Amino acid sequence: MTTAPPSPETDQAPSDEHLLAKYRPVFARIAEGALERETSGRLALEEAGWLREAGFPAVRVPREFGGDGASLRQLYLLIVELAAAESNLPHALRVHLRFVEDRWRERHTERGREWLRRVGDGLVFGTAVSEREGTFGKPATTLRAVDGRLVLNGKKYYSTGALYGDYLTVAAIDDAGARVTAVVRADAPGVERLDDWAGFGQRASASGTTLFTDVEVEGPRALFPPPGGTAGHLAHFQLTHLATVAGIVRRATDDIAEFVRRRHRTYPAAKAAVAAADPLIQQVVGRNDAVAYTLRAIVLDAAASLDVASELGYAFRLTPEGRRTPEAEAELAAAELKAELDAFRAQSVVLNLGLQATTEIFEVGGASALDRKYQFDRHWRNVRTLASHNPLIYREQQLGDYVLNGTAPSFLSPEGASILTTTDAPAVTPN
């Protein structure tokens, strides 16, 4: 593996150039096997290990805890590039990245520092939150106190990244009927992870079923309030998908351009003897190249808004309650709202253009481009799969209501958690 360039001084943020130089060789290595993995259905477990060895899961972790100390804009810059190499991997890491961000928000606490160090040491998280039955926000999975132990029981689906993770974040209902997120080892007794994701896209994201049978939780330190109600929570989740779509469109454009360069046959009505010289085909490729560029720029602009909200939120939390001013609170609220609205706006444009671009690539190749050996259809299938998360129709309606009537979108708020009410709970002994 290529050796990364010397790191900048520890008291400075890493540059884009440093981060790209560090991770691009790994991304390129991963990209080499993307077509084989899609054809065979093999999960990118080995490739995920390369990312772990390079330190990518800790890219957002502050340097003092073993990470790169990257900004959110830089994180999404890297996700776009990783997605161009293998779109399943940023998808599989989506909840891991959100868990790290939540710990970043509490890095002034003992618990926050502990988990950040563990991520800096290479720990990776998968998820087991969603269920196919029951009411949204009220999981059937239970967390119960049994003989002095806390145990989980339940069945989850859409467990994205579960097969890639060392730990799983699990949504459950506790003895008091409150929602809580429990973190458990992925290989703990009673955990069964199944690779039965049946979707037609993002097939290697490991988004299948996870079963929990009397799975012991390590203790209160491994319990967290449910997600939501924090600066950029939904924006963070959504931007991971959007950055992945931007990377897919980049890869689709590069793939079809290489296909055209090698193509010797063309249509009877073509404007040139070879496809690469045909101005109509040039137009299609050029337009898709512009779309790939634009999607990346949109995602990074929205991520910059999220950076502002995250930094303001952390500074606000560090300010003693008696010194928090109404002006500072209003500034933070405005920044959080802007971050969420910018993610909604980006979602509308990125998904629509992404679907259009990954459909239009077939205009340049005729039936030859349909050959399964190229797997060009995976680009559209993957974008369509990602676009099905958080349906766009609701986002656009909420944006319209805000523009017309000033109605701020309603975001998920955490419900009460009886087990954990502070960010400095007793420590769990790391494994």
Brief characterization of the structure:
The chain is of the alpha+beta class.
Question: What is the strand and helix layout of this fold?
Answer:
Layout: H1 16-31, H2 34-40, H3 45-54, H4 72-85, H5 88-92, H6 94-105, H7 110-120, E1 125-128, E2 142-146, E3 149-156, E4 167-173, E5 179-185, E6 191-193, E7 210-216, E8 223-224, H8 233-262, H9 279-318, H10 326-360, H11 377-387, H12 392-405
Parallel strand pairs: 1-4
Antiparallel strand pairs: 2-3, 3-7, 4-5, 5-8, 6-7
Helix pairs in contact: 1-3, 1-4, 4-8, 4-9, 6-7, 8-9, 8-10, 8-11, 9-10, 10-11, 10-12
Notes on the protein architecture:
The chain has 12 helices and 8 strands. Helix 6 (94-105) runs antiparallel to helix 7 (110-120). The strands form 2 sheets. The protein has a 4-stranded mixed beta sheet with strand order 1-4-5-8, with helices on one face. By secondary structure, it is α+β, with helices and mostly antiparallel strands. The chain is globular.
What keyword list fits this structure?
single chain, 431 residues, disordered C terminus, four-stranded antiparallel beta sheet, four-stranded mixed beta sheet, alpha+beta, globular
Average the pLDDT over all residues and give the rounded result: 89
Please report the total strand number as a whole number: 8
Identify the overall geometry.
Answer: globular
Structural class: alpha+beta
Strand order of the largest sheet: 1-4-5-8
Radius of gyration: 22 Å
DSSP summary: helix tally: 12
Uncertain segments are 1-11, 412-431
Our measurement of the CA-to-CA distance between the termini, rounded to an integer number of angstroms, reads 28 Å
- Percent helix: 40-55%
Strand content: 5-15%
The main β sheet shows up as: 4 strands, mixed
Order of helices and strands: HHHHHHHEEEEEEEEHHHHH
